[in-house]
Each structure stands twice: as C-alpha cells, then as structure tokens.
Specification:
mainly alpha; 12 helices; 71% helix
C-alpha cells in the first residue's frame, strides 16, 4: 500500500502541485497583498494573542519568555487546526472532479495539508524574529539559537504525519456523515483548551497532567518549547512518542481511507 502510494505521488505530482496552487489562488483571489497574507496573517494573529494574554490577562511565567512560549504553541496549533479542517472537507469539495476523472483520492487531503504547511513554514519567520529580538538576559528569559534546533524538523514531520492521519479519518467520516464537520468544530474548541497554549501544565493537578501527556499536540509543542525556550534536547521518550503518535495515526488514517474510498462516489 505504501509503495503504490509513493508511485502514484510521483505519477500525479503535477496534479498535486496544481491543487496546491489552486488553493492559493482561491484563498487570495482579488486580494491586493495576495500571498503576502500568508506571512502577514499569522503575524497579526500572533500580535493580537500576545496583546491579550500578556497585557489584558497578564499571564506570566517565571524565568520563561512568555511571548515565545505562547507563539510557539499557537504556530503548531494553528497548523493542525487549519489543515485538519480543510482536509476534512477535501473529498466533499472535490466531488465534481472525482466524478469525472480518476485520481488517487488520498492526494486530496494530502494537498490540503501541504498547502497549509507552506503557510506554516512562512509563520516560522516571525517566530524566529520573536525568538531573536525578545527576552531579557537579566531575567533569564532570553532565547538563543542552539544545536538542538536540528531536531525541530523531525518533530514537525511527526506533527505533519499526525495531522495528515487525522485528516484522512475526518475526510472519510465527513463523506458518510456531514455532521462530522460541525461535531469536529466543537471538538477542536475543547481540544484547544486541553492543549497548554497560553498556560503552563504545571498549574494543573498531577493526575490531570498525566492525562495531558496523552495529547499528541502537547507532546509536539512541549518538545519544541524545550529546544527554543530552554536550549535543551527533549527527552528520548518524548521523541519516541512524537514519532509513534504520528506514524500510528497516519497508518490508521490510511487504512480507514483506503477501505472506504471506493464508496465515496455513492455519497456525492
């Protein structure tokens, strides 16, 4: 199954690039700034969130650059949020296409995750600027580029696999049950509050902390924070959990998707 997928990816690479390009054109159609919004939008959203949580609610963490802490979590969360929502609707929105010509249907959720992934990479630019130009040396909140940054691509890849796996599962469910779109919207809101984006997990009771560790998004975010905020390597068990959570969910998503993809056409 994996081998045939890679062969099809190579065969349909042009179609994949066109799907991603189409998403960019649709998203920024009649926009004056166009693709620049891919950079400006996350910057503006980060600024608003930073203003709200650092000034209005006055969240503080002793010895930690809270702005970097907040933005690091938001960057990963926003990618997962947008990619899974677009991936969930990718089959439904492509019914006119798949009813006319044959294409490997699994490239549709994949193209959405890659499209959002490009925006994610652009959002890393303002994140790095915040890392470099914020923080106070005297207070111990200054962040520095370190050797462990080389591990970040691995963690991001694991997060991508997890996101793609969830997208495959959701896109399959959404075809058979359109209510999935609305149910998942509610689940995302709950999931966001159960992911420590703007607060520290240490303020929670011990038993609840153990439950939070089961959240793959917490594992990805915390691993990257260890590197950026504290200039130290994430623990080996955490890195293993990063890979296993991503690989297992992706494999599960592929199995569910492949088993049901031939039935999609009957629900158009």
């Amino acid at each position: 199954m994996i081998k045939s997928m890679f062969l099809n990816l190579k065969k349909y690479s042009f179609l994949m690039s066109q799907l991603i390009l189409k998403d960019f054109k649709v998203k920024y159609k009649r926009s004056v700034l166009g693709i620049l919004w891919s950079l400006l939008y996350p910057v503006l959203m980060m600024s608003v969130m930073a203003l709200v949580f650092t000034n209005m609610f006055r969240f503080r963490m002793e010895g930690v650059n809270y702005l970097v802490y907040l933005i690091t979590g938001l960057v990963i969360w926003n990618y997962f949020n947008e990619a899974t929502q677009l991936g969930m609707g990718s089959i439904i929105s492509s019914f006119p296409l798949i009813n006319k010509v044959y294409i490997p249907k699994y490239i549709l959720p994949l193209s959405k995750c890659l499209f959002v992934g490009i925006n994610f990479l652009l959002s890393l630019i303002p994140l790095m600027l915040i890392v470099l130009f914020t923080g106070n040396v005297a207070e111990g909140t200054k962040c520095y580029i370190n050797i462990y940054y080389l591990i970040i691509p691995f963690i991001v890849l694991c997060a991508f696999m997890f996101t793609l796996g969830v997208s495959y599962i959701l896109s399959c469910f959404a075809v058979f049950l359109r209510d999935t779109i609305y149910i998942y919207g509610i689940m995302l809101t709950i999931w966001q509050y159960f992911t420590p984006l703007f607060y520290s997990i240490e303020i929670l009771p011990g038993w609840l902390q153990k439950i939070f560790v089961l959240n793959p998004l917490y594992i990805y975010i915390n691993s990257i924070r260890e590197i950026i905020l504290f200039s130290r390597m994430p623990s080996i068990p955490y890195l293993i959990m990063c890979f296993l959570s991503g690989a297992v969910v992706l494999l599960l998503g592929l199995i569910i998707f492949k088993k049901n993809q031939d039935k999609f056409i009957y629900y158009a």
